[in-house]
Amino acid sequence: MEDAASLTTPVLSVSGLWLSRGGQQILRGVDLQVERGERLALMGLSGGGKTTVLRTIVALDAFDAGKVLVDGVELRPGPLPRESRLRDLRRKVGIVFQLHHLFSHLTALENVVLAQVHALHVPHGLAEARARELLGSLGVLERAHALPGELSGGEAQRVAIARALATNPPLLLMDEPTASLDPARRGELGETLEGLTRAGRTLLLATHDDDFALDFATRVAILADGVVVEEGEPERVLRRPSHPATRALLQSQGKSLGSPQRKLAGGRKPSARSRFAVVKPKHKE
């Protein structure tokens, strides 16, 4: 059982994170905290380092300076530790990659089972029971024996989420989660993420989708030139940005800053969520 102190400290704390690659400075002192139960959208232009931040948090990329603390597990600068020394970290954080990275020769069920057996040495029978539970909670249990190539984009993403949650981590990272989804599936994803935080998860989403962030994030942080330049509530940061980098991001998405928002009949203003409220098909993908 978690003690009171663990419930009041951030799940994730990134301090002064510096990282260079091939002589190019990618991160220049990133500071970021994610509180328990948050859905934080890390936003910025493509190539700005959002994915790199996620990869350092899960110890896929080494960093040059700074500190990463994931629910009590600390990562320090220098070469990556051996995988055998990262077992505690694998219990604390899961990641869903933009392209999902499911093993193509394994079924959906086997992909979720493998994460537990490999990372935590869970007995196969218990791992399969947990995998079925997760697939069922995400609405894809009937696809348990399908190979990744037989899944739709939305189904593959939900299997990837199940795999990331298989080790029961308090923190879940997602890289560009809406990139390959149509509006209806984006809405379904947003509802899934809300359900995860209600169940006690904390989410960090790397995205440039400002409409999705407005609807489903509880806070946003803008990354530009290797540092976080602005953060706060989505409505304030994305409707009334104060930093040029935030304005540049929104303009790159075709947003006209400072123009009055279109109103619906009766004077109501449309929310971004309304764009995702597409009638769902009666059959599954």
Keyword list:
globular; 4-stranded antiparallel sheet; single chain; Rossmann fold; alpha/beta; 22% strand; 11 helices; 6-stranded mixed sheet; 285 residues; disordered C terminus
**What overall form do the CA principal axes indicate?**
globular
Number-wise, the strands total 10
Order of adjacent strands in the largest pleated sheet: 6-7-8-3-9-10
**CATH superfamily membership, which one?**
P-loop containing nucleotide triphosphate hydrolases
CATH class: Alpha Beta
| CATH architecture tag | 3-Layer(aba) Sandwich
> Which H/E pattern describes the elements?
HEEEHEEHEHHHEHEHEEHHH
Radius of gyration: 19 Å
Regions with little confidence, pLDDT below 50 for 5+ residues:
259-272, 274-285
Major sheet summary line:
6 strands, mixed
Helix segment tally: 11
Distance between the termini: 39 Å
Q: Indicate the mean pLDDT.
A: 85
The percent range for helix content is: 25-40%
- Determine the structural class based on helices, strands and strand pairing: alpha/beta
Question: How big a fraction of the residues is strand?
Answer: 15-25%
Summed up, the domain count is 1
Could you say what the CATH topology is called?
Answer: Rossmann fold
